[in-house]
């Protein structure tokens, strides 16, 4: 659950940082931030963790691939998103699945 809240916060940062002058790749940040924000806000499922992990990997790679002058925001946020997303996608022992049977 905490991973989804962290993805939510990172999504907000990415979205807002897309509007900050001087940070490159505005559209990339805004779109990835909106998606991370949305998937962190709604109830966390395995597929949402996978998507956030892939978004994190994309943010990281795009920071290198596009040859940005200052890729630190992309690299740090990309690693954090990828780790949190993949962590959220893993099954955890504290989750209990209840099956209802009828007699």
- What overall geometry do the principal axes of the alpha carbons give? elongated
- Estimate the mean pLDDT confidence: 76
> In percent, how helical is the residue content?
55-70%
- End-to-end gap: 34 Å
Count every helix, treating DSSP H or I runs of 4 or more residues as helices.
4
Tell me the structural class: mainly alpha
Percentage beta strand: under 5%
Number of strands: 0
Largest sheet: none
**Low-confidence segments, ≥5 residues, pLDDT <50?**
none
Strand and helix order: HHHH
State Rg.
16 Å
Structural features, described:
By secondary structure, the chain is an all-alpha fold. Helices cover 68% and strands 0% of the residues. It has four helices and no strands. Helix 1 packs antiparallel against helix 2 (26-41). It is elongated. The model has no long low-confidence stretch (mean pLDDT 76).
Write the layout of secondary structure elements.
Layout: H1 2-17, H2 26-41, H3 46-65, H4 72-89
Q: Can you describe this structure in just a few lines?
A:
The protein has 103 residues and is mainly α. The protein has helices at residues 2-17, 26-41, 46-65, 72-89. The model has no long low-confidence stretch (mean pLDDT 76).
């Amino acid at each position: 659950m905490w991973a989804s809240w962290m993805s939510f916060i990172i999504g907000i940062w990415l979205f807002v940082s897309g509007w900050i002058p001087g940070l490159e790749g505005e559209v990339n940040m805004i779109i990835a931030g909106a998606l991370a924000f949305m998937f962190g806000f709604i109830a966390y499922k395995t597929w949402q963790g996978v998507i956030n992990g892939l978004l994190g990997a994309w943010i990281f790679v795009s920071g290198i691939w596009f040859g940005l002058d200052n890729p630190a925001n992309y690299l740090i946020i990309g690693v954090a998103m990828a780790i949190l997303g993949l962590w959220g996608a893993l099954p955890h022992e504290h989750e209990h699945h209840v099956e209802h049977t009828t007699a």
